[in-house]
Known about the structure:
With 366 residues, this protein is mainly alpha-helical. The chain has one domain. Helix content is 80%, strand content 1%. The protein has helices at residues 18-25, 28-55, 63-88, 90-105, 109-150, 154-186, 188-201, 207-256, 264-297, 299-304, 314-328, 344-364, and strands at residues 335-336, 340-341. The protein has a two-stranded antiparallel sheet. The relative contact order is 0.11. Mean pLDDT is 82; it is low at 1-9. Keywords: Membrane, Transmembrane, Transmembrane helix. This is Gustatory receptor.
Amino acid sequence: MDQVKSIYSDPQTEPSSLLGCSLVRKNVSSQVTFWVASISLISKAVYRLYFIFTTGIDHREPPIIRYEQLLIQMYSLCLGLTIMNFEFNRSVYITYLDCYQTIVSEHFSKSSSKFVNKWVKIIRFWVLIAFLYELTTITIHTYLRYFHKIGLQVNFFATILVVLISQVSYILSMQFIIECCIYCQATFIPINTLLNNFLHQNKHSTPIKMYRMARVTRSYYFETIKSIRYMDKFLAFAVLVFYFYFSGRCIFLFGRFFQGSSTIYLQIYNFFRFFGEASYLVLVTYHLARVNRLSVKIFDKVYALTHSSNSDSVESINEINLFLLRIDRNDVGFTFAGLCLVSPSFVSSLATISLTVGLALPNLFK
């Protein structure tokens, strides 16, 4: 197991999420947290899947619900493997934090820290809202599904507690993914700051100074790309698992709306659950896609440099053109299974496919 040790005293670099803190601290308690969480999720999923495949699925339930239960258990299994993967690839995460600290440490720590702290507070508030949402939906679902069988007994509350612990694991994993995205977004602050200063001062800059500033800015962009690739490598499996589950879950919940056999109470519950799961999907996708968006957004600022009267030198023109060519490749950001970039076009394609499958689902599982 990797023995890399890294302690970050800088509050803007030290992660705030439980998973991030555990990865950075590398102590006995963090090791126990990772392995207990991972083994618990995997064991729970394996047991439930074994029970499903050996005893069979309850055929009294609609087919959509039966397959949705399989999806939920598969996600629990994959999430346990994801947490284990985080621990095994801890060195990649530490390498990213080192790159991040290098990028923002020179004159940009204040602005980057302000950006990170703002979003960390927002995400912490979201975690609280998500916890209350999960507690509410789990209680309602357990009541509708099991209350008539077991009544208001210890088993009723035990069922709620077990499911809630699993859902909290889902929330914490999403918090960690969003936090990683926020750090990646913060690395573009130095580039934007340099370009803004560059555009403001270019009338008073000499061609040599302009060349040097363009080269420095392009160097920051290169370092940012390198750091994001580390993070993409670290989160590759987590992003794949996230979309596998939440896209599938939203599709199943959407398909339930067209079931005529559902009661009004189940329809209200399904709508409430669909809204929550879709919110998770939208929030995480927004932060993943925003990394790509920020990498392309600086194109106009760099292009504006070509209109400067001080960009007539061959060196300056070449440097700016190289910068524009690199930005125009549009390959910076997180990837889905290493096949396609999580970008605005990916989001529109995902929404179209999900809607199509969701509408066809009731006919597929009759």
